[in-house]
Write a structure and sequence with these properties.
0% strand, 96% helix, 1 helix, mainly alpha, single chain
Length: 46
């Protein structure tokens, strides 16, 4: 029983780490997607 609980906790922490990594990658991607048109827009204005 205890062993399976430990495995479950380990699995949960691993999936949490993976989801955090994915979230960070998505945020970085969104920043790039939004920043490039924004920079182009500013360059066109000035």
């Amino acid at each position: 029983m205890k062993r399976s609980l430990g495995v479950g906790i380990r699995f949960l922490t691993a999936s949490l780490k993976i989801s955090v990594k994915l979230f960070q990658w998505v945020l970085i991607g969104l920043k790039r997607v939004f920043l490039i048109p924004f920079i182009v827009f500013i360059l066109v204005l000035f």
